[in-house]
């Protein structure tokens, strides 16, 4: 598959990432729920949009606008979003009002804001992009499937720049339903991807693959497919979330497939667990490649060489949806 | 209800229904147009105002022309509500 180059990122998360600060040293204080540090949205959203948009729409539009700003205002040719639960809080509000009112006299705003593709649509409306617009909802692999769509779209050569994002907001109702509760999180991460390198110090996504309940050796098979020997990996970024059952899956892979010299990093203690947390991981690793180092709070085990060029992102959600993304620095 | 009190009540209800969080009732001129100028509302807001009349005052307005006349300003809304109460 043809690689995609990362032109810029825009990330709203529980860390101060909106200002492109990836030191990841925000004090989360061991909180069970990590909520996003939101910017002042005035100036990012039209006043009417600002008052009518739900929180997740503000998160999404804000992050997308920041990504475009960081790209020097370069406009995308297409918009793709991955989301697990999308506008879940507005959906709950709307469903509740249906029940309470006996399906009569329903307010329009929660209805408009309640569908899964609202974020991608509102980003397109804000940026006035009327071309390809798609939303992927595939549980814990939503963002990675959006990435895959992006790479395939760029490969078709019809589009040169694609804005792709991963977004989910915290829902207390959903959180209460979970039997095993990891540190919960939320965030909106957008990336402007291009089919050509932006210049020096570029970062490219060279492979993306998603798996559903894969066999134990799927990482070895994937690396073989990519002709990427494990010893060439300088860093592996893991979705460790603090739940023993989930983390045991990563531990088995660390012991079996990952080279002992590679740096190991984790991020869900920084952004919390949510279905599109992979977008946080991609932004973290991209900025690490640009800066030449991962921020200290993310490092589980330092690398032996200090070299940072090839990075593997490995995430899984409830041991069902697994994803692998290969990043390479220029 | 006195018209002055009704106008103040409507202002508060409109702020809540239309999520006009940056405004207080004192910021709203009851004689100013609701749409385009004044509060600068749009067609989705018009739907919410029609719902507001139904939910809080038991008034259903089916005729689009009549809706436009009622929703000119907060004063015209208050006048219609008072007229409706008298008729009832």
Can you characterise this structure?
The complex is a heterodimer of chains A (330) and B (88). Chain A is α/β, with parallel strands linked by helices and 330 residues long. Chain A folds into two domains: 4-194, Peroxisomal Thiolase, Chain A, domain 1 (3-Layer(aba) Sandwich), CATH 3.40.47.10; 203-329, Peroxisomal Thiolase, Chain A, domain 1. Helices cover 33% and strands 22% of the residues of chain A. Chain A is globular and about 65 Å long. Chain A starts with a strand and ends with a strand. In chain A, 49% of the residues are buried. By secondary structure, chain B is mostly helical. Chain B has one domain: ACP-like (Non-ribosomal Peptide Synthetase Peptidyl Carrier Protein, Chain A, Orthogonal Bundle). Chain B contains four helices and no strands. The relative contact order of chain B is 0.18.
């Amino acid at each position: 598959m043809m690689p995609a180059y990362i032109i810029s990122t825009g990330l709203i998360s529980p860390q101060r990432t909106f200002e492109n600060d990836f030191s990841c040293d925000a004090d989360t204080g061991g909180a069970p729920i990590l909520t996003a540090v939101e910017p002042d949205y005035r100036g990012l959203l039209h006043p009417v949009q600002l008052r009518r948009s739900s929180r997740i729409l503000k998160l999404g539009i804000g992050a997308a606008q920041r990504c475009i700003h960081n790209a020097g205002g370069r406009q995308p040719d297409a918009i793709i979003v991955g989301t697990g639960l999308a506008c879940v809080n507005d959906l709950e509000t709307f469903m509740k009002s249906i029940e309470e009112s006996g399906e009569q006299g329903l307010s329009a705003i929660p209805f408009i804001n309640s569908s899964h593709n609202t974020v991608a649509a509102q980003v397109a409306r804000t940026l006035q992009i009327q071309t390809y617009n798609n939303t992927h909802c595939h549980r814990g692999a939503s963002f990675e499937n959006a990435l895959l769509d992006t790479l395939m779209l760029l490969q078709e050569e019809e589009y040169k720049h694609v804005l792709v994002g991963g977004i989910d907001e915290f829902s207390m109702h959903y959180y209460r339903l979970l039997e095993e509760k990891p540190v919960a999180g939320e965030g909106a991460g957008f990336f402007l991807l291009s089919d050509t390198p932006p210049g020096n110090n570029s970062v490219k996504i060279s492979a993306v693959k998603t798996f559903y309940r894969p066999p134990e050796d799927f990482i070895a098979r994937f690396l073989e497919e990519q002709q990427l020997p494990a010893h060439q990996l300088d860093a592996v970024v893991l979705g460790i979330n603090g739940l023993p059952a989930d983390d045991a899956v990563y531990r088995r892979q660390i012991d079996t497939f990952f080279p002992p010299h590679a740096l190991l990093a984790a991020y869900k203690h920084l952004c919390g667990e949510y279905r599109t947390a992979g977008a946080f991981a991609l932004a973290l690793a991209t900025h690490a490649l640009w800066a030449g180092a991962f921020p200290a709070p993310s490092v589980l085990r330092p690398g032996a060489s200090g070299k940072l060029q090839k990075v593997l992102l490995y995430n899984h959600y409830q041991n069902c949806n697994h994803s692998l993304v290969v990043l390479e620095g220029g | 209800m006195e018209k002055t009190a009704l106008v103040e009540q409507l202002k508060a209800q409109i702020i809540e229904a239309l999520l006009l969080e940056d405004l207080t009732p004192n910021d709203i001129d009851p004689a100013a147009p609701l749409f385009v100028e004044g509060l600068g509302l749009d067609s989705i807001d018009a739907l919410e105002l029609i719902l507001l009349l139904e939910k809080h005052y038991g008034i259903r307005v089916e005729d689009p022309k009549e809706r436009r006349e009622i929703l000119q300003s907060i004063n015209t809304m208050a006048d219609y509500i008072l007229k409706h109460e008298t008729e009832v």
